Amino acid sequence: MPTADQATLDLLFRAARTHNAWLPKPVEDATLRAAYDLAKFGATSANMSPLRVVFVKSAAAKEKLKPALHEGNLAKTMAAPVTAILGMDIRFYEKLPQLFPQVDAKAWFKDLPENILETMALRNSSLQGAYFMLAARAVGLDCGPMSGFDNAKVDAAFFAGTTIKSNFICNLGYGDPAKLYPRNPRLTFEEACRVE
Ligand SMILES: Cc1cc2nc3c(=O)[nH]c(=O)nc-3n(C[C@H](O)[C@H](O)[C@H](O)COP(=O)(O)O)c2cc1C
After folding, report:
1. Ligand 1 pocket mutation pick from 17, 18, 169 by most atoms within 8 angstroms of CB
2. pTM of the full predicted structure?
3. Neighbouring-strand partners of residue 51
4. What single string gives the DSSP state of each residue in 27-44?
5. Ligand 1, atom nearest to 183 Cα
6. How far apart are CA 120 and CA 36, in angstroms?
7. Do 153 and 70 form a contact (C-beta atoms < 8 A)?
8. Residue 82, strand partner residues
9. Distance, CA 17 to ligand 1 centroid (Å)?
10. pLDDT in tens, 66-102
């Protein structure tokens, strides 16, 4: 059975950290594309793939994002080479004829109440956001995920007139390892899991 080698496990998990300080090295658009082109293969319910991403890279786009950032996230986000807005399309079912063509999957979702659709979009776009972070690490980027921002302001600035809402944002770049805080502990298998 194939398994990842130790270096890959370090890259994706054991040595992967949440970064707050960035080296002065730009992120190529091709690298963002490479990360998305891996992340898109992660599983979602009925392949609904609700994730929609805006890569905030230009100074003008960063200025548009700025008023939505909580104070503690402001400086590091403005300094990051790229900030990804991980959004979710609440009308994800519109793309199911393309994404799940073997049955009329759109019919399963299109008449559901808004709050149920939003829960489904949140669950699946959060999974895709996590796939995206792992994919970004796999192509050599570092990540700084954040929920400390005003979602309504981000939605008004970047998703006005659409059915897309922001889920979380994530700084991307090449992190400065010298500026990392010590790693916090994680729950052990015994603390978090049981086998029945
Ligand atoms: C969804 C999400 C939201 C987060 N929001 C913030 C935030 O608003 N501000 C912040 O400084 N860190 C935020 N973090 C960073 C976490 O505190 C950090 O990922 C966690 O402590 C693990 O750190 P490590 O990856 O270096 O071990 C967030 C992380 C995630 C995954």
Report:
1. 18
2. 0.98
3. 88
4. --HHHHHHHHHHHTTS--
5. 27
6. 21
7. no
8. 172
9. 9
10. 999 999 999 999 999 999 999 999 999 999 999 999 9
Across the beta sheet with 51-56, what order do the strands follow?
A: 51-56, 82-89, 164-173, 142-146
Q: What is the pLDDT of residue 86?
A: 99
Q: Find tokens 């500026």 and name the residue.
A: 179
Distance between terminal CA atoms of the chain?
25
Q: Tokens in use for 132?
A: 């995206």
Question: How far is the CA of 119 from the CAs of 71, 116, 125, 162, in angstroms?
Answer: 28, 5, 10, 18
CB 143 within 8 A of CB 18: yes
| Whether the Cβ atoms of residue 26 and residue 58 lie closer than 8 Å to each other | no
For the segment 111-161, what is each residue's pLDDT rounded down to a tens digit?
A: 999 999 999 999 999 999 999 999 999 999 999 999 999 999 999 999 999
Helix (H, G, I), strand (E, B) or coil at 95: helix
